Amino acid sequence: MANLVTLLCCVLLAAAVVAYAQRRSQLVARNQYGQVGGDVTMQCGSLDGDASASWKVNGTDVKAAHRLRGPRLLLPQVDLGHSGLYSCFQDPHGERRDTIYLHVGTPPREPSVTCRSNTYPKGFYCSWHLVHPTYIPTTFEVEVQHNQQSLEVTKDPDHKNRCRVLFPEVFSTFPYKVNVTAINALGTAHTTIFFEESTIVKPDPPERVTATPMRLNARRLEVSWHSPSTWPDIDNFPLKYFLRYRPLIREQWQHMELSDSTSHTITDAYAGKEYIIQVAAKDTEIGTWSDWSVAVHATPWIEDPLPITSTAEVDFSTDCKTSPIPSSKAPQKAEPAVGRAARLLTLFSPLLVGMLLLLMW
Q: Which of 80, 216, 223, 312 is the most exposed place for a label (fewest CB within 10 A)?
């Protein structure tokens, strides 16, 4: 009798567990994917083919234009707007039987892949991206081979679609093979590239570029910079530099290629004109030029104007008195005739005396 009771308890417990699991599966949404422009059919849980069900999407009744086939929902020629949370209910009691999250998107196309070494001869990195979006989660698998051997690939912690690879050897003549495969629920696509070690070397731009005017020289600017901190061995793998500069008033750049020096004096600057200056770097033997550094601005030395000083101060308030300027509208008094005659007599009197003396002689 005790064994029978125990058996019944076990059966009831198992049934309860199954019922709970079914109920939970109905509440937790499952994912389904559909391709843009294609037809999507969703099945309402485990209902039989002759069962009847109703559907809601994001809490709203599914439009009548969508075709219902028993417990299935058919969505013809879906687009991105059909994505959402679908729920189905068994008729006639309206009990929810399933929840589906529909993701509408596209299968991936071939990814764009580039590789570059900014830490030569330590290693290189490869990055990739999809030219056309898929609108659904897409992952990538990367394989790198050299001399028919697979190399270890490390995902970059700071960049989502980037990985790093160590050079197995330096100055190798064997090409590298990189294959990147894009994968999502609707399909896969891959891109394979080949390259030689020397073709991907490209340093980062020089850092901490400064430009300062030179005192007492109106046409010179002293420019200095540091090699990129990511370049691991500047002594054994030196860099050369490319300087460009121009005044803001002109669009044409002036260029200067330099050896491994990290400074240069510009001697042909326009006096008093603001300049914009940038520097690029490159391995002395292989690879390509880096991108330009962050632009800096500087203006050649300008002499400070001398202050205006006076050697003597005059107190015009005591020694001089200024006469008011007469108004152009104010009438002027006429001079009396007697006064004019007296002045004429004074002017010609010496001449008259001289003539009298000559007559008397």
A: 312
